[in-house]
Specification:
The chain is mainly α. The chain is built from 18 helices and 4 strands.
Length: 462
């Protein structure tokens, strides 16, 4: 409503915090596995590069269906479809029941995410125009890897308050949406219209079965594989199939439902995505040479330098600048519990652009495998640099974060509901007022009784 001030980075409601904690717990474990897979890939590729390349480039699959793919392509085009399916469900939930449902609350993370993608792309373009590099990699530094970022938080032991965690997660959801659009628009090859028509028809059947209430994984899993295969053969990147199916799920519970179908399916599939699909993709995507000469080339070649600066500088400046501009020129304001250095720390953390950046790097430089490997190395260097900077910034405020988190979780009456949520509950305020009114009435009654006892009895016969 007009004149209403929307505070940024405010504490989410209890239900949203519980959902957030569940999602972050899975993503954090997945991020640990992702980190381990990336380290394993680097060790494998730099100690036994022949066997690494042999396994990554080994082909398998039915050629008659156009699916005779290398192991690396199965990881990038197949397994990541599961990751993008979860991203689609997450985006749908945010749009219908989360932060993005309210346009006033959605304004800040959307603008921050958009600025956090435009700024890195501009940094990359400026560096490559000045250095005479290829502009085809402009989209590589635009992505944020939420799983890797949360794994960094878990390793650091930083007690981020839920408001900052919610902002980071919502920011990553919007970031994923724009990354999906970039892949669909800029990295679609020549279209095979019969296959694309078949994919659309299969998606329509998927939607219809959901709407009429058909249940059973044995129906949807084969259909999902069919949608994916047709999408792959259509020339549109196969991960778009995962997003499309995720967006079709209903994410609002009906009467009598504890959870919506979207929440239920996301709860089942997210561990598969975070614990298997993404780590395996990292295993076959992050195996690049990290010799001294290769690392030196990262800072002298415009394409790779543009990626590093885009992730480290572009992301931080873009997200922080977008947030500050939104607070400056709209009615959004920063929560009283937080300061602008907190926003900058989260913006720096968003410079960890691992999974989707590696994927876009492969797509952007598919015709030049040597440069593609250098781009992957620059993504690793940029993400590591952003990690180190965010570590310093977050550690400086860690004591403050612990205080905020303890205040959020305090439950002195032991009823499993944090005291701060009871204080924010209007019904709780009403019950508290009624309780005080009863105490006051009892106090008045006792006072009147004492006063009556102290009154001298009148003389007899008076």
């Amino acid at each position: 409503m007009p004149g209403t001030t929307s505070a940024a980075f405010t504490r989410p409601p209890l239900r949203e915090r519980l959902r957030l904690a569940d999602a972050l717990r899975t993503e954090t474990v997945g991020g640990m596995l992702l980190l381990a897979a990336a380290v394993a890939a680097l060790i494998w590729a730099n100690t036994a590069s022949g066997s690494y390349a042999a396994v990554r480039d080994f082909h398998l699959g039915p050629a008659v269906l156009g699916l005779d793919l290398s192991v690396g392509h199965w990881a990038a085009d197949g397994l990541l479809a599961v990751f993008f399916f979860v991203a689609g469900v997450e985006l749908k939930r945010e749009l219908v029941a989360g932060e993005l449902r309210d346009p006033r609350r959605a304004l800040l993370p959307v603008i921050a995410a958009v600025c956090g993608m435009i700024a890195p792309a501009l940094v990359y373009v400026v560096v490559n125009v000045a250095g005479g590099g290829a502009l085809t990699g402009w989209a590589v530094p635009t992505a944020t890897d939420i799983a890797f970022a949360l794994a960094v938080l878990a390793v650091l032991g930083t007690s981020l308050p839920s408001a900052l965690r919610a902002f980071l997660l919502t920011l990553a959801v919007v970031d994923d949406l724009f990354a999906i659009l970039i892949i669909a628009v800029f990295f679609t090859s020549d279209l095979n219209f019969p296959a694309l028509g078949g994919a659309v028809a299969a998606l329509a059947l998927f939607w219809l079965l959901l709407r009429i209430g058909v249940r059973g994984w044995y129906v949807y899993v084969p259909l999902a594989v069919t949608v994916w295969a047709l999408m792959y053969n259509s020339g549109v990147h196969a991960t778009i199939a995962g997003v499309a199916m995720g967006l079709m799920l209903r994410c609002t519970p009906r009467a009598g439902e504890a959870h919506s179908p979207g929440e239920h399916v996301e709860h089942l599939v997210r561990p598969l995505s975070a614990g298997l699909a993404v780590p395996l993709f990292a295993l076959f995507a992050a195996g690049v040479s990290v010799s001294g000469g290769a690392l030196a080339d990262i800072f002298t070649r415009p394409e790779t330098l543009g990626v590093v600066l885009g992730l480290v500088v572009g992301k931080a400046v873009g997200i922080f600048g977008g947030t500050w501009l939104t607070a400056r020129f709209t009615r959004a304001s920063l929560s009283d519990d937080l300061a602008w250095p907190d926003v900058f720390a989260v913006a720096t953390l968003a410079g960890i652009g691992f999974t989707v950046s590696l994927l876009i790097g492969e797509l952007a430089f598919a015709d030049d495998p040597g440069l593609a490997d250098e781009i992957k190395a620059s993504v690793l260097v940029g993400s590591l640099t952003a990690t180190l900077l965010a570590t310093v910034l977050l550690r400086m405020r860690n004591a403050k974060y612990r205080t905020l988190l303890l205040a959020e979780e305090r439950d002195e009456d032991g009823n499993a509901v944090p005291d701060v949520d009871e204080e924010d509950d209007p019904a709780h305020h009403r019950r508290l007022a009624e309780h005080h009114a009863r105490l006051a009435a009892e106090h008045r009654a006792r006072a009147e009784a004492l006063e009556a006892d102290d009154t001298p009895n009148p003389p007899s016969g008076a």
